[in-house]
Please model this.
Amino acid sequence: DNFRAVQEQDGEYVDVFGENEETRLGDVVLMVDVYDELAGVEDEDVVLSVELQDTGEVLETELYDVADDAEGLEEGWYRYSFQAEIELDDPAGIYEAEVTATDRSGNESVTLQETLEVPNQADVTVELQGAVEDEFDREVVFKATGTMETVQKTWTETLTFVNGVGEVILTEVPEDMERLSAKTAWTLRRRVSQSLNQHGHAEVAFTEAEGAELLGGDLNGENSVNMDDFAILRYYWYTENGAADITGSGITNMEDFTILKSNWYTIGDPE
Model:
């Protein structure tokens, strides 16, 4: 009974068996409640399988917890929890999840079935030039383009940055994406060449190590750094207004000016 699959998404726990829900890259916990009044059930008698509809490819799962005191359980019931990890080499598509319980007498009881939808996804890391070590949030706009340089899809995501680095999973990535760009209201746009792998996913790094961190200084949204941006920074000098706070420190000061100066007359990448 009560067969479900739970994944943490954007700080909330979502039942990804739910209608119109998507399963993202990362851990998923599949749970089922089991009860047998007479003979009882052994752990090995509760069997879960998760297979891709089109090919029958199996998604590996592992039983990691059996509880008789979980929230909502009545006396005599046990909650079996299995863990699966959706990785970059797990194909996108519809997965069929099936759990079967057999009691100690060998009698097969209820078989429950549900589906998981794993869309094309991109696991994205973003690094901001000169950002403070402390945690802060920034809205990042991502755009995917294809062969014709036209924008195929746009995502606007709020990322939490620690040590200047934030991460996000983008879903429903176009199959023929060739490039992905990223921009904030404080940085120039950065674009990298990136297509999906054979499984329908991608790993994208807008980082200094890859020569693709987001450069600061574009404060008016024109994707260049010039006198207009300096005028905005000067207007908010030593204030806590975030409009010119390039580093995320909470105040506009010399650190922000230094970054702006380092990118003087620089133009960002196209979408």
